[in-house]
């Protein structure tokens, strides 16, 4: 899986965010994996937590349509936060309220791309920032700074870097 994902990072068809993150290609990759699993298990629909406008690169109407089509899941993705709760925009307050209502534990919503967060951890621990250098501190605090390290990462990923994919897949009975 890691080698397949590194290929997605290297050959980002739809471009990148402010860092190494190939957001649209990443979502297509994850949903293709979810589709394969769903097809094997005869699952008809896949539910995601997408919200229009939540993420600037991958959660816009045009990009969501591209992702759905290129993943091979056109008409099979359910987006309950959009479809049933009409949640949109950058604020996560409505999702947090729903999680509390249904007693669902959730991670702190700050941050962004897990790929960039893991790279930030890796590189800032290997290359500590001098205390007096505010310019470098700001750079390290931004999870998207890791574009600088693209070449070294792709040739040899850090051994302790784990890429997690979370799928919410629900079997719908006829």
Characterize this entry briefly.
By secondary structure, the protein is mainly α. It has helices spanning 2-10, 23-40, 61-70, 80-83, 93-101, 114-126, 134-141, 150-155; strands at residues 45-47, 77-78, 168-170. It holds the Pfam family ThiI.
Give an account of the 3D structure.
It is a single chain. The protein is mainly α and 174 residues long. It has one domain (2-170). 44% of the residues lie in helices and 5% in strands. The chain has 8 helices and 3 strands. It has helices at residues 2-10, 23-40, 61-70, 80-83, 93-101, 114-126, 134-141, 150-155, and strands spanning 45-47, 77-78, 168-170. It has a 3-stranded mixed sheet, covered by helices on one side. Helix 3 (61-70) links the parallel strand 1 and strand 2. 21% of the residues are buried.
Q: What is the total domain count?
A: 1
Radius of gyration: 18 Å
Number of strands: 3
Could you tell me the mean pLDDT?
A: 66
Largest sheet: 3 strands, mixed
Our estimate of the beta-strand percent is under 5%
* Helical content band: 40-55%
Distance between the termini: 32 Å
- Spatial arrangement of strands, main beta sheet: 2-1-3
Number of helices: 8
Shape designation: globular
How would you spell out the order of helices and strands?
HHEHEHHHHHE
Label the structural class.
mainly alpha
Which consecutive residue ranges, at least 5 long each, have pLDDT under 50?
129-174
InterPro entries: Rossmann-like_a/b/a_fold, ThiI_AANH
Organism: marine sediment metagenome
Pfam families: ThiI
Keywords: ATP-binding, Nucleotide-binding
